[in-house]
Design a protein that fits this description.
The chain contains no helices and 14 strands. With 170 residues, the chain is an all-beta fold. The chain has one domain: Jelly Rolls. 36% of the residues are buried.
């Protein structure tokens, strides 16, 4: 599924612009394009997002195309039974549990620090079966101005089967 932002869903009277919430109930990726070059912060929100497989869900960004390498950072997972870390290299990993029953709610905030380098930080909670939370932190240096946000999985083949995703930009 691909969503092009045309500004028609912008809030009025404020600096925060809203996309349209997209059901994450099918497909292998949810893509938001048309992010204006003036955006300095993008918030990606997840509500009950799940896939049919065990590949970690992740957020990738891009300039003209999706950037699939060069991410630096970690996902730190905390739970009652296990604490673990998963390195981010192909995207900002949202949950490191590798469990098909994962249901994620939370957000990832992307902030432009300088040039075309973006810092990602956020938190998600997994409320399906293994009650845990994940902290996401990292960075990515793009070749140009960020114009897209893609939500997918590390293997790129698991299918979304529940929830919704939306973005804000400012």
């Amino acid at each position: 599924m691909s969503i092009v932002l045309d500004g028609s869903n912008q809030t009025t009277g404020g600096l925060i612009n809203a996309g349209t919430a997209q059901a994450s109930t099918s497909g292998t990726a949810i893509t938001f394009t048309g992010i204006p070059s003036t955006a300095k912060r993008i918030t990606v929100m997840f509500n009950g997002v799940s896939t049919n497989g065990t590949s970690n869900p992740q957020v990738q960004v891009g300039s003209g195309s999706t950037t699939t390498s060069g991410y630096v950072g970690y996902n730190a997972r905390q739970g009652a039974t296990l604490n673990a870390y998963v390195a981010n290299s192909a995207g900002f990993i949202l949950d490191g549990s590798n469990v098909a029953a994962t249901t994620l709610t939370g957000h990832l905030i992307l902030t432009l620090i300088s040039g075309n380098t973006w810092i990602g930080s956020g938190v998600t909670t997994n409320t399906a079966g293994i009650n845990e939370s994940s902290t996401i932190a990292g960075s990515i240096a793009l070749s140009g101005t960020l114009d897209r946000v893609v939500i997918t999985t590390v293997n790129g083949t698991d299918t979304f089967d529940a929830g919704s995703i939306n973005i804000f930009w400012e």
